[in-house]
Amino acid sequence: MKTSRRLPTSGIAGNRILADNRPGMSPVDIADHNSRATLGLLRRFGPLTRQELARHLGLTEPAITGITQRLVDAGLVLGRKRVAMTRYTAVEFAVCPDAAYSLGLRLGTDGCEIVMLDLACSIVRQEHVTGLDMIAEAIDGMIASFPASASLIGCGIALSPEAVSARTAIEVAVGHLAVPLFFLEDSEAAINAERMLGIGDAEGGLVTILIDDTVRAGLFIGGRPFHGMHGKAGEIGEMRSGIDGASLNETATLPSLQRHLAHETSADGWVEIAARHLHEAVLAISGFIAPGAILIGGSLPDDILASVISSMAREREKKIRDLVIAPWIPVVQPATHPKDGVTFGAALRPFNETLFPA
Fold first, then answer.
1. How many domains would you assign to the chain?
2. What is the distance between the alpha carbons of residues 341 and 253, in angstroms, rounded to a whole number?
3. Within-domain flag for 3
4. What angle (nearest 5°) sits at the alpha carbon of residue 135, between those of residues 171 and 121?
5. How many of the other CB atoms lie within 10 Å of CB of 324?
6. E strand segments, the chain
7. What is the mean pLDDT of the chain?
8. How far is CA 311 from each of CA 105, 167, 273, 278, 318, rounded to the nearest angstrom?
């Protein structure tokens, strides 16, 4: 295997823009928080002036001047004159996309999806490999063409339940990068993608349901991922419902669809059954945590996913008419990135841990 240039990690602190080991909220803690918040705003809204940043953050313009200068000195932000029709031209600040990069890996039964994002959270490269032994070479190829000044700040790795046993092999495959590795469940990665690249932080929290070899849910409640006391929250695949008492893993997965299509020419029957069981799971989740949004993604073909969501909406309206459920339970909608959201969310994790607000 060829050995290509690594992106340096110097210039950006490991877990902070400025490091400080003192306990409590020190001045450096506050500066780090404000720098992260500023970078987050610039990523989300694009170029902003000091006055606009001050309005968003509730800080004075002199305080913003210190924050932006610190980010400019770190090479993360660039200041430039805003084009205007008036005599007064304000300086606006924007994220430098090539200042830092992050890798994201999604490991599933179909292989490994790899994505590289820049600091503006735009996709720079994306590849799919079928074997663990191909990961290192694919990553080296991604890195080889980037400027020597760029920093690779970390690698996020999202694991499906079926791929957890491959964690050690993944660590070996990417160990030559010498950057922090962040392992997370694929359902949590999907939530991360929705929060930063999708619908944002919905009031009441988010639920993302992933459908592939199994069915599982990611829960973002109270401003943080929720896993439950025993880490089992979101493992909804074994939930049984309906007259037949079948589980979601038996009725609403990609393998169950494939088995259905092996005997039927149309997926309509499968869609009806899957939607009914998924709707029961949504009712159970919503009745207790009342999320602001429920989204579905995974490996289903786009047209099948759309049909499932449409059928779930009809189930919801029927239940509302029958006074079985409350009308405030949200309508299920497709994830912003149904198939790639997990990989994007994994790549966003290093940014959340180092530069952006968590």
1. 3
2. 18
3. no
4. 90
5. 10
6. 48-49, 77-81, 91-95, 100-108, 111-118, 123-129, 151-159, 181-185, 206-211, 215-221, 224-225, 240-241, 246-247, 293-298, 333-334
7. 87
8. 32, 37, 9, 10, 11
Half-sphere exposure in the Cβ direction for 333 (13 Å, CA): 13
CA 142 from chain centre, in angstroms, equals 21
Question: Stretch 303-307: mean pLDDT, rounded?
Answer: 96
Give long-range contacts, CB 8 A cutoff, 24+ apart: 253-256: 253/211, 253/212, 253/213, 253/214, 253/215, 254/211, 254/212, 254/213, 254/298, 254/299, 254/300, 255/213
Same domain, 330 and 205: yes
Q: What is the DSSP string of 225-262?
A: E---TTS-TT--TT-EETTTTEEHHHHSSHHHHHHHHT
Q: Are residues 118 and 228 in the same domain?
A: no
In this predicted structure, what is the pLDDT of residue 179?
92
Q: What is the CATH number of the domain that holds 296?
A: 3.30.420.40
- Verify that 149 and 267 share a domain, yes or no: no
- Region 200-219: mean pLDDT is 93
- Identify whether 89 is part of a domain: yes
- Could you list the residue range(s) of the whole structural domain that residue 123 is in? 98-191+341-354
The secondary structure of residue 77, as a DSSP letter, is E
- Report which of 251, 203, 250, 210 is spatially closest to residue 234, judged by C-alpha positions: 210
Q: Determine the residue type at 213.
A: D
Q: State the Cα–Cα distance between residues 11 and 75, nearest whole angstrom.
A: 8
Above 70 in pLDDT, residue 325? Answer: no
Provide the token pair at 332.
């299920």
CATH number for the domain that contains residue 49: 1.10.10.10
Q: Residue 185: which region, alpha, beta or left (left: phi > 0; alpha: psi -120 to 50)?
A: beta
